[in-house]
Amino acid sequence: MGLETEELIQILDQMIELLREDGETHWRKWAATAKSRLLRADFSGIEYVLRGYGGMGSFSDLVIGQSSVAGEFRWKAGYRENNDTLDRLRGEAFRLANFIKRNHEIDRT
C-alpha cells in the first residue's frame, strides 16, 4: 500500500468520526466501506470513493450540523467549523483518490 493510500485511509477515518459525531449514517457507511476496501488493497475502493462525488445528492452536497426540534429547523453548535472540516477532508479525499487512480498505486488483482 502506498503513502497516498495510507493518507486517504486516515482522511476517511477522520470523516467517519466527524459524521459519527453529527449522527450522519448514510455517508459514514459509504466512507467505512471505502476504507475497508482500501485496507484490503482492493482498487475498487478508489472507484467507490470517486463515485460518491458529483451529481445531485452526492457527498459533495452534504451539509452537516442540521437538526429539527419540535418541527423547527436548527443548526447544531459548531456547525460552521464542522462543515469547514468536512469540506477540507472531502477535498483531500477526492484529490488523493484521483491521484491514486491516475498512478495505479494499488495493484489491480
Number-wise, the strands total 2
Q: In terms of per-residue confidence, which ranges show pLDDT below 50 for 5 or more consecutive residues?
A: 105-109
Structure class: mainly alpha
What gap, in angstroms, lies between the N and C termini? 13 Å
What is the helix content?
55-70%
Please compute the radius of gyration using only Cα atoms: 15 Å
- In percent terms, what proportion of residues is strand? 5-15%
The mean pLDDT is: 93
Number of domains: 1
Order of helices and strands: HHHEEH
Largest sheet, spatial ordering of strands: 1-2
Number of helices: 4
Describe the main β-sheet briefly: 2 strands, antiparallel
Question: What is the approximate shape?
Answer: elongated
The protein's oligomeric status is single chain
Characterization of the model:
The chain is mostly helical and 109 residues long. It has one domain. Helices cover 61% and strands 7% of the residues. It is built from four helices and two strands, in the order H-H-H-E-E-H. It has a two-stranded antiparallel ribbon. 23% of the residues are buried. The C terminus is likely disordered.
What's the layout of helices and strands?
Elements: H1 3-22, H2 26-39, H3 44-51, E1 66-69, E2 72-75, H4 79-103
Antiparallel strand pairs: 1-2
Helix pairs in contact: 1-2, 1-4, 2-3, 3-4
